Amino acid sequence: MTEDVLTNTRMESPTPNSAYGDLVRMAYFVLPGTGKRIYRLAVARRIVDATARGPRDRSPAGLARRRTRVLRRALRPSRRLHIGLGPWLRALPARLPDPALTAALAKLDPYVRVAYVLRHVEGLPGYAVHDQLVELGVRDPRKVMRAADAAPPPAVRRPERFETAMLRPVRNRSVLPLAAAAVLTAVLVTALVMTERPDPRVPHLRLVSAAPGAWAHGARTLDAWPARGDLARDRAFTGRAAEAWASAPPGGRADGTAQLLYAGRVDGTLLALMRHGDRMARYTPEGLKVVGLGKDPSAPIALDGGRYLLAPWDTHAETFTGDRLAISHGVTAPAQADTECGRGPLFHLGSRTFGHLAGPRATVLTYHSPAYRPGGEERPARLGKEGRKFWNHLACVTSRPDRPVSEAMAWNFWSGDLPAGGESADWVCTRLTYADGATTADAMLLEARDRATGGCDARRPVSGTWWQAPNDRWYYLAAAGPGLVPHAEGVHRSRTRKRLLTATGTRNAPVELTAR
């Protein structure tokens, strides 16, 4: 089952209240069986309503715990949930997903279905899906995730948007006990209000922070990142930061509630980081800048001077010499890429290597040698000496991404000597996975004059280009990954040796290139 199948079932959340709709959508797809969609939706809404715990659900940790409760009930729903569904059958959304989607999901093992829904419907990164499966008691989460990715796609007849964003909880009892509980819980709420009482005449943004240990007791999400920095409790500074974001020009401003991630001094400069959905604002006394942040819960956030704010569960970083990289209150000591362009590998975090490719967050870097053959699940692994050397070169010749990149994979799929007295070269396919889940893959020939050679398939790479040899003659060159042979139409006198095709023809003439 591919990720594209359920793309249209997701809705962007216009308001904080749409978190309810997100939970309903998740429960809808996790529920076993098929049946009529309206009853499936009613049961999903009933499950979500039954898991409510009042205002405490609004905190990041509370939302994470509620998601776990919803998943447990949706995995094995009680038959009693189908009795008295009337209140939950009212005010249904205008459209529901094609029944082929739920029919395909119903054939999966329950935990595999959960993994698929979290990854490809809710858009959670692999790390968060892994942690959620652990919370549900799954013994081998990676095996379950691999099974979810290998599931065959359903034959969807009419992809439709699943309009859950406007759904609201069903109140089938008095609201007075809930109101009383809200008053009591407000006294104990873990979120810290960081701004002073607003002036109704000016724009206002309320800053909150997750409890310091929220990530240890719930899902590891961005919502669970606590506010860090020596100015996190400085209401005057954080208040100015919030006011600046609330007063930003239309399209860049935020209102309502935002999450404070960091407030402190970085090499003498005052800095505040605030998050609203998948956007982040960087505030300094000199001004405010709003950038895309994405939903990856683990990628370090770039501060200034080569320092990075780590996820609260990442407490040990290493340099490439094996030394421990100093961390203070979640912030690393300066870590600079060893390149002239300032981009490239930075440090190890556990089994991953993070690097800087430009953008607000560090990127997981992976590397495959020419001997690599794709198969099974790709897991991030630390870059070795060869991989770091390769990325130090590649990072500087790759065009700067125009949006945050969460993972970058480089496969050096061909390496050898170029014909007619040419020097040794490498052909690489680089796949960038962006923070919003989109991917791009481009090929590049690395030689005396590095050049981009168009797009590539990151699992079956093949690429070609016209190339001028040292004797000034022009050739068409093409290479393919291990186990493949390049074939070109539109050239003359082509020959292939060690997966490198060399041909002549009219320079820059269109060529149809395939790999077999």
Secondary-structure blueprint:
Layout: H1 19-30, H2 37-50, H3 60-75, H4 86-89, H5 99-106, H6 110-121, H7 126-135, H8 141-150, H9 176-188, E1 205-208, H10 214-217, H11 235-246, E2 256-266, E3 269-276, E4 279-284, E5 287-292, E6 301-302, E7 308-309, E8 317-318, E9 324-325, E10 327-328, E11 331-332, E12 344-349, E13 352-356, E14 363-368, H12 385-397, E15 405-417, E16 424-434, E17 439-446, E18 451-455, E19 462-468, E20 474-480, E21 486-489, E22 492-497, E23 500-504, E24 512-515
Parallel strand pairs: 1-2, 14-15
Antiparallel strand pairs: 2-3, 3-4, 4-5, 6-7, 8-9, 8-12, 10-11, 12-13, 13-14, 15-16, 16-17, 17-18, 19-20, 20-23, 21-24, 22-23
Helix pairs in contact: 1-2, 1-3, 6-7, 6-8
- Beta content comes to 25-35%
Specify the helix fraction band.
10-25%
Task: Using the CA coordinates, give the radius of gyration.
Answer: 26 Å
Biggest sheet details: 9 strands, mixed
> What is the overall silhouette?
globular
Could you state the oligomeric state of the chains shown?
Answer: single chain
- Give the averaged pLDDT, no decimals: 83
Structural class designation: alpha+beta
Q: How far is it from the N-terminal to the C-terminal residue, by CA?
A: 25 Å
Q: How many H/I helical runs?
A: 12
- In the sheet with the most strands, the strands line up as 9-8-12-13-14-15-16-17-18
Any idea how many domains? 3
Number-wise, the strands total 24
Uncertain runs: 2-16, 172-201
